[in-house]
Amino acid sequence: MKKRFNRKKISLIGAGNIGGNLALMAAQKGLGDVVLFDVVPGLPQGKALDIMQSFAAQNIHTQVSGTNDYKDIDGSDIVIITAGKPRLPGMSRDDLLDINAKIMKDVALNVKKHAPDSVVIVISNPLDAMVYQFAMISGFEKNKVVGMSGILDSSRLRTFISMETGVSPYDIRTFVLGGHGDDMVPLIRYTYVGGIPLLDFPGITKEKVDKMVERTRNGGAEIVNLLKTGSAFYAPAVGAITMAESILSDQRRIFSAAAFVNGEYGHKDIFICIPVILGGNGVEKVIEINLNPDEKKALDKSAHSVESSKEIMTKKGYLT
Ligand code: APR
User: Fold this and answer.
1) Contact 311, 269 (CB under 8 A)
2) C-alpha 179, offset from chain centre
3) What is the pLDDT of residue 153?
4) Ligand 1 binding pocket mutation candidate from 21, 40, 79, 82 (most atoms within 8 A of CB)
5) pTM score, whole prediction
6) Angstrom distance (rounded) from CA 43 to CA 45
7) How far apart are CA 177 and CA 200, in angstroms?
8) Is 106's C-beta closer than 6 angstroms to any atom of ligand 1?
9) What pairing do the DSSP bridges indicate for beta strands 282-286 and 268-279?
């Protein structure tokens, strides 16, 4: 699709469960014209046509097109990548590494060729490894590459806190740091219900918080076990669209997201979930907050898992 004057262009690589929802949500929010790419012939074209046919009833004026040709992503302002396999029951995100690394290499080379000026949001799992691989293969500036993880993990925690307190999840704020895996680090000390620290909220006890944290850590697996045929797609799509909106409109909102660290939080040369400001240039700023010794220890443990995936990818030649 040719880039239209004065309209943003959003390209979605992968037209599966998350990709299709991203396309619909991007259109409904009026973010710009959408190109849906997939390797499966007909799949992105069919979904695009279906979404376009919903516009007449919704007063939407942008375009959604489907393609199997990377040329159509030329001139994209933003690219969101969901290409790859989702987990099935019993699998960890890391079990997807070999299969998705092969896919991500092809995606990164094509995005580099056709959308070199875009900001890229990676959703494919294992998230921290995939976003690192994309950055290495594409050679994109590190601030132009970000992974959607913390916004989803913190949305899950906000949901469970909302269920427990009866307060709207929108009024609950929290951070989740670390890798997008079982050892992610929900930061309870920085969690507020309408400005009230979570542990001071009436009826909230440490035991209840521990249970909510555990459910958040297993939040993805809980859904995989219920769906049985794939993984979560609505909340991941909303997470990425919220990030994309902040980038496309230069909103400079703060999210926890997988961003490149070069010494921040004591770690180097990995992508890991930390608080960042997202604006027109992608990651505008990495925010370093004070962690107590327990929080730092938990973050280090999570970072070490991310570093191990990086070592595996280096050994297997996925990074070149
Ligand atoms: N290039 C582009 N798309 C590809 C490629 C490729 N080389 N290989 C596979 N795909 C497409 C598939 O054809 C499929 O349509 O990626 C799409 C993935 O869609 P789903 O299987 O529905 O998976 P989804 O639920 O969208 O999750 C995608 O995001 O959250 C992560 O763990 C999840 O890694 C998974 C990814």
Assistant:
1) no
2) 12
3) 96
4) 82
5) 0.97
6) 5
7) 22
8) yes
9) antiparallel
Residues catalogued as catalytic: 180
Pairwise CA distance, residues 157 & 311, whole Å: 30
* Cβ–ligand 1 contact at 87 (below 6 Å): yes
| Cα–Cα dist 154/160, whole Å | 10
Q: What is the pLDDT of residues 202-238, one digit of tens each?
A: 999 999 999 999 999 999 999 999 999 999 999 999 9
Beta bridge partners of 10: 34, 78
Residue type, 6: N
Question: Could you tell me if 36 and 23 are in contact, meaning their C-beta atoms sit under 8 angstroms apart?
Answer: yes
pLDDT (0 to 100) of residue 3: 76
Taking the C-alpha atoms of residue 309 and residue 272, their distance in angstroms, rounded to an integer, is 12
Map tokens 């490894």 to a residue.
Answer: 129
37, 39, 93, 134: residue to mutate for ligand 1 pocket, most atoms within 8 A of CB: 39
The β-bridge partners of 26 are none
